[in-house]
Amino acid sequence: MTAPLTPPPPPHEQSPQHRQEPHHAWQAPQPPGSAAHPAYPAVHEVSYGQDGPGMKTELREAAVITAAVALAGALLGVLWWWLAPHVPLIADDTAVYLKDTEGEQAIGVDGTFTLLALGFGALSALVVFLLRRRGGVPLVAALAVGGLLGSLLAWRIGVWLGPTQNVVAHAKAVGKGVVFSAPLKLGAKGALLAWSLAALVVHLGLTALFGPRDPDPYEQQGAYPGGGPAQPGPPAA
Questions:
Q1: Taking the domains of the chain in order of start, what are their residue ranges?
Q2: How many Cβ atoms from other residues are within 10 Å of residue 72's Cβ?
């Protein structure tokens, strides 16, 4: 014979050892990175926002910066024409010669352009950093491209404002034995890169020293060991 089955006691009379935890306590935790997980606060959503409208805004700003920096090259060209030393020439019945064969005026012309371009590059980088402290690849590319275009524009404007390129006609116009200025010429074409290089170095330096720092989502939410919220565990027996 078997003993009769004893019906289980009512729920309110069960001992703590026989009570079962609610079903929801045994639910699997949500995977890391979900919106509801406290340790990873919507990192995925932030990245989507930056890749969408943020990138479009940066591209628009980069286009404006490129145009503004390139147009500033006109001022550089005027200053180069005004400040650059003149190379003296003299002509006789047969040819045109340098009046001072040991002079350094030609080197001074290139040096003046280079120094002005470096100054314009540093100034443009400072202005861009003050207007938009958070840097980005489009802004850096805009400074580089705009600096190169501005240097080309300054070179052509300076040559256009300077003495005529037709040296023979100029010599005939002034007469034999009269000193006149040589055409404004940029001998070292590498000076055209001075603006872009200065802008890149100054802007990257300012961004590294004074730019805003991106907050660490793990540190903010205390996800590091010892500082995070308690993870759900198995219920006590």
A1: 59-209
A2: 21
